[in-house]
Amino acid sequence: MFTYLAALAEDAQFFNVFRYITFRTGGAMITSFIVVFLFGPAIISNLRIRQGRGQPIRADGPQTHFKKAGTPTMGGLMILSGFLVATLFWADLSNLYVWTVLVVTMGFGAIGFYDDYLKVTKQSHMGFSGKLRLAFEFVIAAIASVMMIYAQTGTFATSLSIPFVKSLLIDLGWFYAVFAAFVIVAAGNAVNLTDGLDGLAIMPIMIAAAAFGLIAYLAGNTNFANYLQIHYVVGTGELAVVCGAVIGAGLGFLWFNAPPAAIFMGDTGSLALGGLVGTIAVATKHELVLAVIGGLFVIEALSVIIQVASFKLTGKRVFLMAPIHHHFEKLGWTESQVVVRFWIIALLLAFVGLSTLKLR
């Protein structure tokens, strides 16, 4: 919305700053943080009253988790509120990529909200039907994929970029829409699986958002894209503003989610934020790089897949408990040790992923 103020630059030079993505990214970050920080306590208080016993605690989980009983969930509402306000204020609303990310984020957030609602009201971990939930996610992701294909031109729109290799594109045809939808859904659910400890998911999400904000800015700028020899994707620079909104909202949420958490993110936030990062990865043609930058989420998801497959095939479990962050808790790591060490891993993987911008 503020981008329209740039038209006033002819009368007052000050308004020219609203043309710059970097300025609006900073504005989005500050705005989303302020919204979450100011309205967070009221949202937490309201959710605590409405939810009563709060999010149910897994009976087979680490014993230290039982002291968290009664903590409200759906904290994703705080994040999405700050994110939405900041994005609508600071992003260029004529940009199709911005609306695509909003469709996925709010759509996945709605699915997560319903899942959280069922868990709280039933006081059970059995929320939304898994198959039905995935079906809705794929529909939303498929719509977003088609929107992004429409935003680009020629075979580039349906091509897969290969990291570390200059100018290599593999045209997947319309199968690319299926692939892109899978990336978005996989990202959403991987983050969802990671959200199991206070602060564990939100910091890696902010790290991934910062990395993809930089990638979006560079890929959307013809000069930087040519210099780095990455694929120039017209319009994706605006997604840096969206990433700024995520970082600010995440910082605001972390203020309340820091141990001991006053509120849990819930599926409302984790599913939405994962889908958001996945969508930006697709938009910027860095789908495969997402597996590196979001490597922590991949590890968490793989641990669950391996655990389930092993138990069904052999009757034995590979990990003491899945997702893998619970495995380390069972080994004796404190919750804060798991969280901080996983943050370090996420940060290192983000740097490795960003190295693909130059190592070609």
UniProtKB/TrEMBL annotation:
HAMAP family xref list: MraY (MF_00038)
**Listed PROSITE patterns:** MRAY_1, MRAY_2
Gene Ontology annotations for the cellular component aspect, listed alphabetically: plasma membrane
Q: In which pathway does it act?
A: Cell wall biogenesis; peptidoglycan biosynthesis
Give the organism the record lists.
Aureimonas pseudogalii
The cross-references to PANTHER family, in alphabetical order and at most eight, read: PHOSPHO-N-ACETYLMURAMOYL-PENTAPEPTIDE-TRANSFERASE, PHOSPHO-N-ACETYLMURAMOYL-PENTAPEPTIDE-TRANSFERASE HOMOLOG
Q: How does it sit in the membrane?
A: Multi-pass membrane protein
Q: Which cofactor does it need?
A: Mg(2+)
The record lists Mg(2+) as bound by: 192, 267
Q: Name one GO molecular function term.
A: phospho-N-acetylmuramoyl-pentapeptide-transferase activity
Q: Where in the cell is it found?
A: Cell membrane; Membrane
- Where mainly found? membrane
Protein's GO biological process: cell division; cell wall organization; peptidoglycan biosynthetic process; regulation of cell shape
Enzyme Commission no: 2.7.8.13
InterPro entries in alphabetical order:
Glycosyl_transferase_4, PNAcMuramoyl-5peptid_Trfase, PNAcMuramoyl-5peptid_Trfase_CS
Entry protein name: Phospho-N-acetylmuramoyl-pentapeptide-transferase
* Domain of life of the source: Bacteria
The record's comment on protein family reads: Belongs to the glycosyltransferase 4 family. MraY subfamily.
Q: What does this protein do?
A: Catalyzes the initial step of the lipid cycle reactions in the biosynthesis of the cell wall peptidoglycan: transfers peptidoglycan precursor phospho-MurNAc-pentapeptide from UDP-MurNAc-pentapeptide onto the lipid carrier undecaprenyl phosphate, yielding undecaprenyl-pyrophosphoryl-MurNAc-pentapeptide, known as lipid I.
The record's NCBIfam families line, in alphabetical order, gives: mraY
Keywords per UniProt? Cell cycle, Cell division, Cell membrane, Cell shape, Cell wall biogenesis/degradation, Magnesium, Membrane, Metal-binding, Peptidoglycan synthesis, Transferase, Transmembrane, Transmembrane helix
Catalytic activity entry: UDP-N-acetyl-alpha-D-muramoyl-L-alanyl-gamma-D-glutamyl-meso-2,6-diaminopimeloyl-D-alanyl-D-alanine + di-trans,octa-cis-undecaprenyl phosphate = di-trans,octa-cis-undecaprenyl diphospho-N-acetyl-alpha-D-muramoyl-L-alanyl-D-glutamyl-meso-2,6-diaminopimeloyl-D-alanyl-D-alanine + UMP
Keyword Ribonucleoprotein in the entry? The reply is no
Q: Which residues cross the membrane?
A: 28-49, 69-90, 96-114, 134-153, 173-193, 200-219, 239-256, 263-282, 288-311, 338-357
